[in-house]
Amino acid sequence: MSAAPVTVAEFARAKVNLCLHVTGQRADGYHLLDSLVVFADLGDRITCAPADQLSLTITGPEAAGLAADQDNLVLRAARAFGRPEGAAITLEKSLPVASGIGGGSADAAAALVALSKLWHVGLPDAGAVLRLGADVPVCLAGHPARMRGVGELLSPLPHPLPAAHLVLVNPRVQVSTPSVFKGLARKDNPPLPPELPRLKSLTDLATFLTMQRNDLEAPAQAAEPVIAAVKTALGGQPGCHLARMSGSGATCFGLFPDAQSAAAAAHALRARHAGWWVEAAAMAA
Ligand code: C5P
Predict the structure, then answer these.
(1) Which of 30, 82, 196, 209 has the most crowded Cβ, counting Cβ within 10 A?
(2) Structural domain boundaries of the chain?
(3) pLDDT tier at 4, thresholds 50, 70, 90
């Protein structure tokens, strides 16, 4: 008797770069990074059901921003297994597309995990995973990490981070990641300190992060000045310990001490900026 086919669901959490230092450039043009990556308890959902053919349906509030074509990272993730079997994949899209919080990479990572469970096969090798996107390895790891290399070198944090809540704000502009990297004034910026200190409170974390940077902020802001306005609006909310851009933007995050202050800030920002995407979420441990 064979087991009944099962549907597998995986959550694709938004990734947030608490800091992102660009420390060099490889001969192939890819940039060397040194970044602290965490995840928000907020994201897309991938569901994979048994089927003869491979198919992708996109639903959810952000579905309009994305085509379900062969270039979609979810279908590219399915092909990374080699010759894929069939699966009816549904992507419930809640994160804005191309917004610096790893939506596409998180979807690809969640699809890899869901399909490996559905098909009872191991994950593709590390090279195939990285070729899907520089943020796919960290999204596959799914826990806070220091990310180096072009995204493939991951180390767990030496000490747990303090509890924190995030407010994510996207001003509904899309910035092109390659052009943001091209706009960097320098590519040899200093890395993070070799040893990450123990950060016991949100104040400790914010103080440490204030001494770090997102090197992509300046070129992203030059292309889309509204990013500076987002940071100012976030930073002015009661309880906001730090406001910074994530990834290559345009989404910015604010760090808050509790769910109440994050929810109040999100409420105030939505009321003032009706066109912006604003969400509050816990920082996942
Ligand atoms: O890997 P991913 O598709 O997310 O990268 C998008 C683009 O961002 C790359 O084509 C490259 O131009 C740039 N990039 C980079 N260095 C990295 C990651 C991305 O130059 N480490």
Answers:
(1) 209
(2) 8-154, 159-284
(3) low
Residue whose CA is closest, atom 11 of ligand 1?
A: 178
Ligand 1, residues 20, 28, 31: which to mutate, most atoms within 8 A of Cβ? Answer: 31
Pocket residues: Cβ below 6 A from ligand 1? 30-31, 33, 133-135, 150-151, 177-178, 181
Q: Which of 15, 20, 30, 150 to mutate to test the pocket of ligand 1 (most atoms within 8 A of CB)?
A: 30
Beta strands at 165-170 and 8-25: parallel, antiparallel or unpaired: unpaired
- What DSSP string runs through 214-278? BTTHHHHHHH-THHHHHHHHHHTSTT--EEEE-TTSS-EEEEESSHHHHHHHHHHHHHH-TTSEE
pTM: 0.96
Dihedral sign of CA atoms 187, 30, 46, 141 in order: negative
| Average pLDDT value over all residues in the chain | 96
Q: Which atom of ligand 1 is nearest to the CA of 104?
A: 4
Specify the CATH number for 159-284; select among 3.40.1440.10, 3.30.70.890, 1.20.1560.10, 3.40.50.1820.
3.30.70.890
- 190 CA to middle of ligand 1, Å? 19
